[in-house]
Design a protein that fits this description.
Blueprint lengths: L1 H15 L10 H15 L1 H4 L5 E5 L5 H9 L4 E5 L3 H10 L6 E4 L2 E2 L4 E8 L13 H4 L6 E9 L5 H4 L5 E5 L5 H6 L2 H4 L4 E7 L10 H10 L2 E11 L6 E10 L3
Parallel strand pairs: 1-2, 1-7, 2-3, 4-6, 7-8
Antiparallel strand pairs: 5-6, 8-10, 9-10
InterPro entries: FkbM_Methyltransferase (IPR053188), FkbM_mtfrase (IPR006342), SAM-dependent_MTases_sf (IPR029063)
GO biological process, one term: methylation
Pfam family, one: Methyltransf_21
Length: 249
């Protein structure tokens, strides 16, 4: 309150001289506040004390940057198939000694596939868009590129996981194939946060019910949503980042 009063007095004095000033908070202060808010909102997540985090469908590292703030020394392993996006990811984590990334997509088997590269890269998918364009007109233009797919289970020797670990999956409708190709790794995870859809946004994608059944069969319990995506048209829930917790270790 005192600081606010002082600022008001200073601004009034300068106005008498015909000057208008504003107080701009430094970027450092802004970042500190954002980090503090993030930690406060995710206190429940930090209590799990994850030693390793697998980020499947990393894009430019949006999720990785968030969990790095929450877990400063935890090992993060990212998978991102789009070459240009992968390069951005590598640059942003170039000085992070506990970060490792693979320029490959994950699925049910090892193969080369055509990916629909969207103008809005987070919407890129191995599946063609269905109702997605009806809700998001900023993510319409796309072209195809060839990418390499592999199974998550085939990377066990390279990623050197330490329990307890978290697995995040965000692959735009391809989540069920990732699960099928990674059952050995997934069934040992403490938590899985995966994107699920309640509306078919991509052709051939499975919806929440099937993802729920697959992860329940691996010993996980659905405990809620981390975030939800609403339609800009009618605000219905289209997707969510669903949280699944292992029942027993």
């Amino acid at each position: 309150m005192i600081l606010k009063t002082i600022k008001t007095v200073i601004k009034s004095l300068f106005k008498l001289l015909g000057l208008d000033i504003s107080f701009v908070r430094s970027e450092r202060y802004k970042k500190q506040k954002e980090d503090a808010d993030l930690k406060r909102a995710n206190l429940w997540l930090t209590e799990f004390n994850f030693h390793s985090i697998i980020d499947i469908g990393a894009n430019e590292g949006q999720f990785a940057k968030k969990v790095r703030t929450l877990f400063p020394s935890t090992k993060i392993i990212s998978f991102e198939p789009i070459p240009t996006v992968f390069e951005k990811l590598k640059i942003d984590f170039a000085t992070d000694q506990n970060f490792k990334a693979f320029n490959v997509g994950l699925g049910e088997k090892e193969e080369k596939m055509q990916l629909w590269l969207n103008e809005y890269s987070p919407s890129s998918s191995l599946l063609k868009m269905d109702h997605h364009t009806e809700h998001f007109d900023f993510a319409v233009k796309q072209n195809q590129i060839e990418i390499q797919l592999a199974r998550l289970d085939s990377y066990t020797s390279e990623i050197d996981l330490t329990k307890p670990y978290l697995v995040k999956i965000d692959v735009q409708g391809y989540e069920d194939r990732v699960i099928k190709g990674g059952t050995d790794v997934l069934r040992k995870a403490k938590m899985i946060i995966t994107e699920v859809s309640f509306v078919s946004l991509y052709e051939g994608q499975v919806l929440f019910d099937q993802i729920y059944s697959s992860l329940k069969a691996l010993g996980f319990r659905y405990v809620g949503n981390y975030e939800q995506l609403h339609s800009p048209i009618n605000h219905s829930v289209l997707q969510a980042d669903a949280i699944f917790l292992r029942e027993n270790d």
